[in-house]
Design goal:
heterodimer; A: 392 residues; alpha/beta; Peroxisomal Thiolase, Chain A, domain 1; two-stranded antiparallel ribbon; 35% helix; B: 381 residues; 2 domains
Chain lengths: 392, 381
């Protein structure tokens, strides 16, 4: 891979907003998108008329029950009579929506872009998991009737086996993130739990237990992205997007080494190179690593080269990843604590970058010493990752 | 001179059924042809890949998962734009304009033959509160819109037959036009109205098609291609997805076209030919108006005088359009880009137009959307 590092136009985040994350919300998908967009624009001090283009992110159409979901969401996302586009990279869509917004402005074509991510999962009954029946290769895999939790259980198992990692060490992630989320006003699954609670929770597919996994959620989140020219005019504290990266591995996950996310290493390297980061462990202040399962936070820390292979649990155990540690991971509470409305969850992480950099995160605030924050998401058939690096 | 060019384009299909290939195999064949044309190795030379697809059309709940291998994009920045493929092309254009990428591949495909009842899928694009419960065929909206437009402009079915004849017969010279025929105007006039005032002739059929285009920065384009086709400007726009809110308008297309004209300092007089959406015969006329190729007062006269034919002074759909080639779902925009690419490189064979140096492409996502994209291409002459 050889993307360039000299980008023509700098891009800043100047506003962020999100709805509550809940298992069921009364609002329609459009209303959720509207609410997050409105809050984001308000926080930027901008109006819908100022928005020049809109990027929408949402995971499978089937969740909301719409064909061409981007079209349906466009009105609610302030896209009336504007260039609107929906992007989609499975679970990694949330962070990718911000990346797509970034390239609108970096290209010089637009100055103010709204990036909105939304997910409505309660429409799928009895459970949205049923819709994952249709994500598989129709010939080779679908007849086996697999389930997403099964394949993640395989990945978790492989990770534990290869690096000799214990379940109780992985459970520490769930304990940390759910506790962090107690300070997040939009959180759905915040709790003060112990490692024992995780280990005693219901087994879904061994080794995945109920408290290892993020909840089914719905909600929306949005950020306002602007060019340097506009940013200098409207705010004293823009949050600059310094690096973006995304990478997709082969569809054939069965022939992949599941213990290490190579695609994330590639996505991370792309973003690090652009941001001029040579040692992420030393240069990042905090990272919103994607944590739909507790083991995934560890897995992703290693893919992002924040920890050596198999050593992320050690950093977690030593408290390095706590909010007051040397490199806080998921200070927001992550998907495990705040909730997991797929695309909106990734965008929530980008929102958290904005609030942390601007010292607006309240009790969740971490110390910004070196200036860099990172948000990451992951998806498809354990095959894609998206990364955004920000700087104050 | 523009900063972004199309240096390669390939296709497979444009047939009512392609049961000899899967959607991945068809895309692979199109990609190979595109890569060969500009002599690139996707694994080494391409910086990013964009696939344009909708889950419900592909039949896979996260279709992005299956976009990667057949393009040679494993462990590369690959993403999906779930929209009209011209909007996907716009993403590639922006990636290059930003300076991040030098070469971007954009792919779109249609395996419409897999869809047993595409109209039932379109029902899921209707608003569940205001529209879906009415349980109507999506083409019913087209029939209302056609009636409204024809009444306003004083256009008859005989006029629509002229468009059908023009496009379906233009297609006779196009190897991708599976639905081209020699049109007997009397037969068209006598044909049964299936969505009154529209007959089967007025409504383009679906087709299977796989299209891949390679975009490059100016520097790379000049190095890799003798005949780059330059993207001079593009814009896309959506009105509302709710038909009751927007009525029968093409306001979003008007705005998109105006933005392209403004950005490129062009007007329709400087465009040598137009490749525009004609999935319904009357829609070609609506789009011609929105692009300011004609206007509401002159459209009927211009049509009857044959000004939009290949012999006319404002050539529209010399390829045969969707009426002749079929609608390849969201690959439509790239399909039109492919036709323009051939014309602008003087490689369109029997279809070749004289002095084809600049083309304007306009795409629509079809019912029930109001999403349009417009793109101006030129060969730099």
């Amino acid at each position: 891979m050889k993307t360039n590092i000299n980008i023509k136009n700098r891009v800043a985040i100047v506003g962020a907003g999100m709805t509550l994350f809940r298992r069921r919300l009364k609002e329609t998908p459009q209303e959720l998108a509207f609410e997050a967009s409105r809050v984001a624009l308000d926080s930027a001090g901008l109006d819908v008329k100022d928005v020049e283009a809109v990027v929408i992110g949402s995971a499978p159409d089937a969740f909301d029950g719409f064909h061409m979901k981007g079209e349906h969401l466009s009105d609610g996302s302030m896209g009336y009579m504007k260039p609107v586009k929906r992007v989609f990279v499975g679970g990694a869509t949330g962070v990718f929506t911000a990346i797509a917004g970034w390239w609108h402005i970096a290209s010089g074509l637009y100055d103010i872009v709204l990036a909105v991510a939304e997910e409505k999962m309660s429409n799928a009954r009895p459970h949205p998991q049923g819709l994952f029946k249709y994500i598989w290769d129709p010939i080779v895999e679908r007849p086996l009737n697999p389930n997403l939790i099964w394949i993640f259980a395989m990945e978790m198992h492989r990770y534990m086996y290869k690096y000799n990692i214990k379940k109780e060490d992985i459970a520490l992630v769930s304990v940390k993130n759910k506790r962090n989320a107690l300070d997040h006003p939009a959180a759905q699954a915040a709790a003060n739990i112990s490692v024992d609670d995780v280990l005693k929770s219901e087994v879904l597919v061994w080794p995945v237990q109920r408290l290892d996994i993020s909840p089914v959620s719905e909600g929306a989140a949005a950020v306002v992205l602007v060019s340097e020219r506009v940013a200098r005019k409207i705010t004293d504290s823009p949050v600059w997007i310094e690096g973006v990266g995304w990478n997709l591995d082969s569809t054939h996950w069965t022939s992949r080494e599941l213990a290490y996310p190579k695609y994330l290493e590639e996505a991370g390297n792309m973003a690090y190179r652009m941001a001029g980061i040579e040692n992420p462990r030393k240069q990042l202040d905090f990272a919103e690593v994607y944590d739909p399962f507790d083991y995934k936070e560890l897995h992703h820390m290693e893919g992002l080269q924040i920890a050596n292979k198999g050593e992320a649990p050690k950093l977690t155990k030593e408290g390095v990843t706590q909010r007051d540690g040397d490199l806080p991971i998921c200070p927001s509470g992550g998907l495990l604590g705040v909730g997991n409305p797929i695309a909106a969850a990734g965008m929530m992480k980008v929102c958290e970058l904005f609030w942390q950099h601007r010292y607006e995160a309240g009790k969740r605030q971490v110390r910004i010493k070196r200036g860099y924050g990172l948000a990451q998401a992951w998806g498809d058939l354990m095959q894609v990752s998206t990364v955004v690096i920000t700087k104050t | 001179m523009s900063e972004v060019a199309i240096i390669g384009a390939g296709y497979y299909g444009f047939k009512p059924i392609t049961d000899e290939v899967s959607f991945r195999e068809g895309t692979f064949l199109a990609a190979m042809r595109a890569y060969e044309q500009c002599n690139i190795d996707p694994r080494k030379d391409v910086d990013s890949f964009i696939a344009c697809e909708e889950d419900f059309n592909v039949g896979i709940a996260i279709s992005n998962e299956f976009a990667v291998d057949q393009l040679g994009g494993v462990l590369k920045p690959v993403s999906t734009v779930t929209s009209e493929s011209l909007i996907g092309l716009a993403s590639g254009y922006m990636l290059i304009k930003s300076g991040l990428c030098d070469i971007v591949v954009v792919e779109a495909h249609s395996k419409a033959s897999n869809l047993v009842s595409p109209e039932k899928i379109l029902e899921f694009a209707m608003d569940p509160v205001y529209e879906r419960f009415l349980n109507f065929h999506p083409n019913y909206l087209a029939s209302l819109e056609a009636r409204n437009y024809m009444e306003k402009r004083g256009i008859s079915n005989d006029d629509l037959a002229l468009i059908i004849k023009k496009n379906k017969e233009n297609g006779l010279l196009n190897p991708r036009a599976s639905y081209s025929i020699t049109v007997d105007l009397e037969a068209v006039k006598k044909s049964e109205k299936i969505f009154d005032p529209l007959s089967e002739y007025d409504i383009a059929q679906y087709t299977d098609a796989f299209v891949v285009v390679v975009l490059a920065s100016k520097e790379k384009a000049e190095k890799l291609s003798n005949k780059p086709v330059w993207i001079e400007g593009l814009y896309w726009c959506s009105e509302s997805s709710l038909t009751p809110l927007r009525g029968f308008s093409t306001n979003a297309l008007e705005l998109a076209a105006q933005k392209v004209y403004d950005r490129t300092n062009l007007n329709p007089k400087y465009i040598d030919f137009f490749e525009i959406d004609d999935r319904f015969s009357y829609r070609e006329l609506m789009h011609i108006e929105a692009l300011k190729v004609s206007n509401k007062d002159t459209i009927k006269k211009d049509l009857r005088e044959g000004r939009f034919s290949k012999e006319g002074d404002r050539i529209v759909n010399a390829s045969g359009g969707y009426l002749a080639t079929g609608v390849p779902l969201d690959a439509g925009g790239l399909a039109r880009v492919y036709e323009a690419f051939l014309q602008l490189r003087n490689e369109a064979g029997q279809m070749q137009l004289k002095n084809a140096n600049r083309c304007l492409i306009a795409s629509w996502r079809g019912i029930p959307t109001s999403t349009y994209a417009v793109c101006a291409l030129s060969n730099g002459a």
